[in-house]
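Hi P.,

Sorry for the delay on this. The queue was packed all week, but I finally got your sequence through. Input first:
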Amino acid sequence: MASNEADRTDYDAIVIGGGPSGAAYALTMAQHGRTVLVLEKDKFPRFHIGESFLPYTADMLELLGVLDRMPGNGFPIKRGLDLIVPGGNRLVDLEVTGDEGYRTWTYQVERARFDKILLDAAGEAPGVTVMQETAVKDLIYTGERITGVWFERDGHRDSATAKYVIDASGRAGVLSRALGLRKTDNQLRMAAVFKHFEGLDEQYNPTREGDTQIGVHADGWMWAIPIRDDIISVGAMAPTSVLRASSPEEVFATGLARLPRIADRLTNTTEWHGIRGERNFEYHSDTLAGPGYFIVGDSGCFTDPIFSAGVYLALSTGRRAAQETVDCLDNPAGEEQVRLRYENFFKTGYETYYRLIRAVYDTRVGTMGTYIRHLLMSDGLTEKDRVLTLNGDFWNDSNRLVERLREHPEYQLFDPFEVHVGCPVYGKDGPPLRVS
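Then the structure:
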């Protein structure tokens, strides 16, 4: 147990889950001098899929005060994306926006190691207590308001109270499920199979060292992401119907055969971890805050990971929920306004990303991947529009690609809401990096 006040039982906030969204919430509350209890059911480090960061993710880590903990962990530097779509490939080069002050690089990470770095940072922050291997068993109510939790640790049952309880439990959705808020989405119905390879030698890489590769083919897509200097993660996403009619190994091999640019990168590597699988359980909640609670990160929405925005959205919503919590603690009468503002923020970020994903899967002008290529190449868009969208520019009202994605009513995810304008790291007007 990491603890600043081990005997305390009442807090400003209790966080269910110690992943990126929960850690971001705790770190932000600590920056405001508040007390937080983080309850994490697992022992870190623990395996978690998801390894590529957006540049805005690195910006968010800087705002949280943990970016300087990243060097020295063997995390490769990413400076772009090799996007392989029907008709060819294109390099999404982060240098395009460098002269305007945007970050032109980010990290690729092994999530087990990264998540531990983040949770350790939270546990060391003043006012934050972290308990691992601690499972939340029930919620405590005062009237209709959530005011605490019952938890179990080392076979002992105990409780703690707080002014706010935060669901950062990811797909487990401890609070969102208990309140019956989660809705299942069935638009994409994809599943992932993936392997890790060691002995990576980037001289065989047809793109730049450290960059991500995303390859789209007729039946799905693949990723190739270096997570350490000599280890690369490679995965195949395919419709669940295709996986049921085949096998994980066959789906993986078929995708690799269709994407030789990715296959070439694996020259002389050997399997480090054999094939694993993970179904893409899509879901969302339209209610993301209420009396005594906020829902952050994957607890509130999960969708296809094709453009690696999950950690960025988790950090952003965790940080924003903490800022809104501080507002509520200072002004309890404004809680309803805060709830609506937070929900608009959350929904704007996740639905913008979801619309980008839906464009990849859109087959109106041919097979999967052809419509997104058409959209990326359409008149009126600048390279800045394209690059910033893929960097995490989800809360913008002047990015022309984002605006075009919002013109598709069939891409709607949440019930109607008011778009929140204002990037969580660059504000409404772009660089320099906002540090407040």
